[in-house]
């Protein structure tokens, strides 16, 4: 299902916005505004991209349809059509990437040649690990590790899908942009060609091949994950190395234009790894942290290991999505790129770097720190020998919190070009910290635990009882009865997921506001400034502050849940602050959408008013379902 959703989302957007862009205006050479540039300058390449992209889209829809049909019938027979459609989907996606990511046949063929190279490396790992595995007994280990294997496959698949998503988009829309019509000498390049290929050819090639390696490795991982035998023989590790280090190299090459900045960017990841290793080393020196377990300590250790795995799941999810966000934002920074040389700037360079150099540096290093910290965390969280002591000594939590604050700093620096607005955003950051401190104080207050106990007692008293005075739904054999502590944990995971998705949407939207950005300086307009700010300032302010409030509320939810996750379940914080922050988050997100998606207040008002019929419909379903449950209980 995830592979189908990935293919459908990628190919749908790529089909509507093909590589090379669109013609902006009609000219006398037969070019019509809105038509794909690539179709006119290289028709064969465009046709290869178009049909490969369309085949991948249709195959993805077929995968989703087959899975939905099997889910409705409760049967999973005849898996051959599904596997065939998935293989066709991935191969067509690779073909579309090779055709659309570059304009030279030689480099496109090299992209396709990466696939057999990756397969050779994976095969080498397969045979080497196979010899080592044949010398050990695997009967008990296979039974004991099946649950851990399923968890690993789930998160590795998520990592591969998101890596393929960002690599595919970055390949079709490379950093630096593409040449626009009539703004470049015809002798050196053509319209629709990557600007970075002309201005910095070596840097572009480094970005291109690293990004292509990550794309191919992600597709190979998706195929390997369908075979449990390959996963157990450690054939996955080789592809994961390329999948993790490919985006790092592509980010270092594509996010900046000078060698020193690229070196500093890579050094950030090394600094995170060194810090975690040193922290773990000092933690393991404590005699209390080691030793053999005896008696009843084994059961307690098993409980702690289960909590460690839950913490690892949340941290890995956060790190993967943070890396996805910052990778896209780093390659296409706020303000866009210069489209032509002149007035002291060069084509393909970030506009923000020339107009506001200090603000750009703040955004660049904060975003790079968050990206490299996230990638380093992913590497650590995939190795049990590293993440277990790292979670116990809170080293990984420190890195995640540092990455989150870097993300906030990048948003404050890149979402607005005015100092006053950035100060207001930082005030919202202070409010986030104050909220976390306040909830921590509430947790430590004795009255809070009493209130929690009263709420639980009131909940028990509201349950219907039978003739013996026992709650009807408290039968331990009742499958509908939630396990102790499982309901709050499930709600916390749900809030974490919604908070992460809301932060993802608002972060990228804040850096690329609706209405676009001015491309050149002229009159009162400065290049890189939001167009909406100059033509409808009040609407832009409504969008900006609503979007910023939603982003900060999402970060608040994530910070509170991370703080709650560190504690044991019996000493966990209540969920009402998270519910309050999430309500504010959703209302602010609705306000940002209403302000940014339209240009007149009547349409924005209608968008907000749509909330009430939706809530009424949900309430109607709720009461109808509740009445049916009460009737079933009465019978």
Give an account of the 3D structure.
With 635 residues, the chain is mostly helical. Among the domains are: 1-132 and 147-234, no CATH class; 255-283 and 309-338 and 346-414, no CATH class. It has 25 helices and no strands. Helix 18 runs parallel beside helix 22 (537-566). The radius of gyration is 27 Å and the shape is globular. Mean pLDDT is 75; it is low at 132-145, 183-187, 448-453, 455-463 and 466-482. InterPro entries: PGG_dom. The chain crosses the membrane at residues 48-72, 78-99, 111-128, 206-224, 266-285, 314-331, 362-382, 394-413, 419-439, 491-510, 542-563, 575-595, 607-624. Residues 465-476 have a biased composition (Polar residues). Residues 1-101, 147-257, 307-417, 491-599 form the PGG domain.
Features of the shown structure:
mainly alpha; about 625 residues
Strand content: under 5%
**Spatial gap, N to C terminus:** 39 Å
SS summary, helix count: 25
The radius of gyration is 27 Å
State mean pLDDT (0 to 100 scale). 75
Uncertain stretches = 132-145, 183-187, 448-453, 455-463, 466-482
- By secondary-structure content and strand pairing, the structural class works out as mainly alpha
- Largest beta-sheet details: none
Q: Helicity level, as a percent range?
A: over 70%
SSE order: HHHHHHHHHHHHHHHHHHHHHHHHH
Count every beta strand, where a strand is a DSSP E run of 2 or more residues: 0
Gross geometry: globular
Summarize the structure.
The chain has 635 residues and is mainly alpha-helical. The chain contains 25 helices and no strands.
